[in-house]
Amino acid sequence: MTASNDSIDSSETDxxxxxxxxxxxxxxWLTRFVFALSIFLAVAHIYINTIGTLxxxxxxxxxxxxxxxxxxxxxxxxxxxxxxxxxxxFDILIVLxxxxxxxxxxFFEDALYARGVTFDTGDWIVxxxxxxxxxxxxxxxxxxxxxxxxxxxxxxxxxxGKWIGGPFSFPGLSLExxxxxxxxxxxxxxxxxxxxxxxxxxxxxxxxxxLVKSGAGDFIIALARSLASKMIGxxxxxxxxxxxxMGSVSGSSVANTVSTGVITIPLMRKAGFPxxxxxxxEAAASTGGQLMPPIMGAGAFIMASYTQVSYVTIIGVATxxxxxxxxxxxxxxxxxxxxxxxxxxxxxxxxxSQVLKEGWHNILxxxxxxxxxxxxxxxxxxxxxxxxxxxxxxxxxxxxxMGPVAILDAMAQGxxxxxxxxxxxxxxxxxxxxxSTTGVGNTFSIMIxxxxxxxxxxxxxxxxxxxxxxxxxxxxxxxxxxxGTLSAPAIFNLIAESQLLxxxxxxxxxxxxxxxxxLVDPGAIAQLxxxxxxxxxxxLLAQVPAxxxxxxxxxxxxxxxxxxxxxxxxxxxxWLSQDxxxxxxxxxxxxxAAAIAKTPPMRTGMMAWKLAKGLYIVPLLMAYTPLIGGDxxxxxxxxxxxxxGLYALVxxxxxxxxxxxxxxxxLLALVASVLMLWPNLEIWLQIVxxxxxxxxxxxxxxxYAKGSVLxx
Length: 712
What we know:
Largest sheet: 2 strands, antiparallel
Strand order of the largest sheet: 1-2
Transmembrane segments: 29-48, 60-79, 86-107, 113-133, 145-165, 196-224, 311-333, 363-396, 422-444, 451-472, 478-496, 557-576, 611-629, 635-654, 684-704
Distance between the termini: 25 Å
Helix content: over 70%
Radius of gyration: 27 Å
Keywords: Cell inner membrane, Cell membrane, Membrane, Transmembrane, Transmembrane helix, Transport
Number of strands: 2
Structural class: mainly alpha
Protein name: TRAP transporter permease
Pfam families: DctM
Oligomer: single chain
Number of helices: 32
InterPro entries: DctM, TRAP_DctM-Dct_fused
């Protein structure tokens, strides 16, 4: 491919990728005003998250108003109206309404409580307009699905919930109560999800914007190229490494695909990878970026809030599963590279010594961030100091020194990047409020358990299907919030009960936990001490009243283990929420990669779905093994066998391991994979699986080498 062709492809790619970007207004005075507003919002949020002591309701209202104003000014109600002055006039009215909403809360909230929380005309008007503006701003930036979901939830509470029978019947609330809980209380728009948005999420999105502005993105790609250039299928590994590192910072799979794919996909095609495979690898790797600590998009912060487990613990237990995912994608790269004879790279990456010499300072901000988190500082404080570390470390760079202009640009870009996420999370708070108010979450969890017949595997399948359907209309973070609220209790209970039943059947139940069964069947105490058949243990556990089960789990499993099981349930849902990025018919990450590679979008989506199989395998390991929260020895064993098990599974799927596999060899690879990945097998069986895999690998390597010699 010549340089001229490269430039032509690049310009065509830029045109194709426009469909994945929000159509923003432009204009001299508008651009200046948005720039100034963005900087103001960034400075205000830094103040709020460091030394500010304002009431949370007012902060959340200000957060919504500020970023809602950015959305209203940048994104017209209809893309065709970008140049319409009339449309801009009405959007300026929306901005004024948002400002008025904040002022109303500041000056009239106390009057509402003085009246005994009885609405007057102003309360009705302001709260109604705020909810409607939330729906409209989300529609502009994220489409119709989420506003429709919010409307269904809100009308369920006040209208049609009482008309349906069965477990989802709800007697209903008055419209006044719904608007109060949605707007004035800390349960709805301005509840816990909003608090996460204006604190953790904003500070880390701002941190990411500063990193990109300081040249860290270029350093990441250069580092990935230098590390992978000598490997078989090097450009494919550049995509895996680069997308994994960039995705953790960017928080958006589509943005990750576009920013790294324009470099990695052409590199893979030059090296000899098929175009559709190159696009699929980029999509699969970019999707996994949000699984990679330390930032993980917004998921880690929301998970920490839901589980009440520290952010540091969340990213700590997420590391090994994330590595397993990227290794699984990397195995596909190696297999395809051997099959296509991609044994060398046309353009070697720069030496790693040169990359580190020129860009080592880019590592300092991440080191500062992680150190502060480990030392116990809050994530917002750590992110704030991390931003300062980015600025200081940039002064060690030759080409990316951050002066006042660059700092202001980074602040403005961070605020603009946050605008869509902010209005989305605030709107999703309305859905979460309905779920918690009506008890739909518990009902849904019970219903899933009933449908699955108490089977953890079938429960995971149902949650995966639900995540795929929701993911067609919801971004990953929103999908996780909704699914986590609805189905996490079901997964948690099934995992916890399976561990509890294992202890009961083996006779290892602690004495304190045994005492709970005195209330159910005093005659079973002796059997519990000796162990009992699993079906008998299940029947005995079923007799324990629901109010006592949580106490029983705490006493039997321990508070720390119970917390890790809760994290496991949420981590599984968070992983499954990623699958909509790579699963047809709606898979924007794969579509963005297809636009770069010039391949059919749907076929590219199918390829990405195949290459991202780790999104399903690793959650199964989480559910059935202590991959999260296990002791060091157990984690080493699980990780070792999982790595080789995933490689064997890829070989069985592709029919290739160093060389083409015969049908019997392919079946042997599948057997080896099952032996190494199947949970709780005896270690000697896992070793048998490892030996089979290694034998196939050595034989394939020898036959491949012989074939290469004969070809010469």
